[in-house]
Amino acid sequence: MNADNKYKGMGAGFATVTTLFFMWGFITVSIDPLIAALKAIFELNYAEAMLAQFAFFMAYFVVSLPAAALIARLGNSKSIIFALGVMVVGCLIIPAATHFDTFALVLVALFVVASGITILQVVANPLAAELGAPERSHFRLTFSQAFNSFGTWLAPRLVSGVILAGGIFAVTHGAKVTPELRAESFHRIDTVFLAIAGALVLLAVFIFVFRRLLDVVKPVDEGQRPSVMTALKSPWALIGGAAIFLYVGAEVSIGSAMTNFLHEPDMLNVPLEEAGKLVSYYWGGAMVGRFIGSGLLTMFRAHRLLAVFALGACLLCLAVTQLHGSTAAHLALSIGLFNSIMFPVIFTLTLERSSAAPAATSGLLCLAIVGGAILPYIYGLIADAAGLHTAYFLPAVAYAVIALIALAAAGAKIYSHGTTTAAAGH
Predict the structure, then answer these.
(1) Could you tell me the domains of the chain?
(2) 7, 137 contact by CB (below 8 A)
(3) Quick one: pLDDT band at residue 426, thresholds 50, 70, 90?
(4) Would you tell me how many other CB atoms lie within 10 Å of the CB of residue 194?
(5) Which DSSP string corresponds to 83-152?
(6) Cα torsion angle, 267, 268, 273, 278, sign
(7) pTM
């Protein structure tokens, strides 16, 4: 009875936290159609356009560790409200960037937005796990991840319909792009990010009203957190970090260029707006795959399932390098389905096999998300030199290495740390 009373009311707190998962999923994938828009408006090559993802995901590497200290100092609700405020500032920098016609300022804005998201992830993942009975922590994280995936599915459909329509995108091939049309395209980008800023302000007010529901769980004091540096001494923490680096890099590379890829004449040859909306199937596949994968994980060993999914993604990438038209388009979009279980399974396999404390290993794995900054830029360089089809060899290699790591996990020693660490959402 005492246990029931202890967790009574935490469901409302958990529901409040889950809204954060949706919001950062929505914003993160809104960058995909934005990249296609920026590429056209600023006349960028692929490598230059991928600097948007470089700026965004570099925030994970820079902000993750300071975020832990911030949360220990401010507490849960104040940290969340602070993070939402940072994201609002980032969104408001976008209109300034378009006003001054400066791509570099757009990159600054994306870094600021991602800094806020990083803080949200550091506070929200363990909070979602702890707002309720311990035996249901995995269910709560899976449920929250589903809302995160819903945000990633919805964003391309809504955002592409605004920023990839009208303006310079309404001009027929070969026609002149006037300053007025360019200004209209900038205005559409401003509209999206001002709307997101407004939603974030409302969410911050919502969090403030229900702040007591989130502060029933105290964040771990910074002085009690094992140093991430200790994880560098664990071979499997490093191996798992490499797998996360490769996975996030591959997933982001494919998603970032998917709009332009589907738009190409030898693919679907559809307008950028329609191509951008189709990207939702890539992220929607990951959402569906998480539900399917959850069931499969009850029947098969995690490392074996990871190997199968990684190999499947690798083979799809290799097929896309050789095929064209609707077949290649459907195969490319299907990669999202195979991406679905990779992040959480890599995370948990690494925690089990790392000799370092779970918190230290988890911190290192979060830093490894910087792969979403590095690999897309390399992907862009390959695309500029040899085309988007050839660029798929990069994620193919990444998935192949992940498959090998999954197979190697079978013979690795499993440590019993006595604690459960929540995997960060992606």
Answers:
(1) 2-411 (1.20.1250.20)
(2) no
(3) low
(4) 14
(5) HHHHHHHHHHHHHHHHHTT-HHHHHHHHHHHHHHHHHHHHHHHHHHHHSS-GGGHHHHHHHHHHHHHHHH
(6) negative
(7) 0.93
- Among all chains, which residue has been given the structure tokens 């069931």? 295
The model's pLDDT over 13-67, given as tens digits with 9 standing for 90+, comes to 888 888 999 999 999 999 999 999 999 999 999 999 999 999 999 999 999 989 9
**Under a CB-based contact definition with an 8 Å cutoff, are residues 125 and 68 in contact?**
no
Cβ atoms of 279 and 155 within 8 Å: the answer is no
Supply 229's token pair. 């540096």
Burial class (CB in 10 A: 0-12, 13-18, 19+), 19: middle
* Tokens at 20, concatenated: 């954060």
For residue 298, which amino acid is it? T
Q: What distance in Å separates the CA atoms of residue 249 and residue 423, rounded to the nearest whole number?
A: 18
Quickly tell me which residue has 């992907």 as its tokens: 379
Residue 357: name the closest of 415, 412, 302, 425 by CA.
415
* Gap between the Cα atoms of 341 and 349, Å rounded: 12
What are the tens digits of pLDDT across the range 49-58? Answer: 999 999 999 9
* Of residues 379, 374, 369, 310, the one with CA closest to residue 341: 310
327: Cα separation from own chain's centroid: 26
Rounded Cα gap, residues 373 and 305, in angstroms: 27
Q: Are 57 and 66 in contact (CB under 8 A)?
A: no
Q: What angle do CA 33, 38, 40 make, to 5 degrees?
A: 100
Give SS3 for 422.
Answer: coil
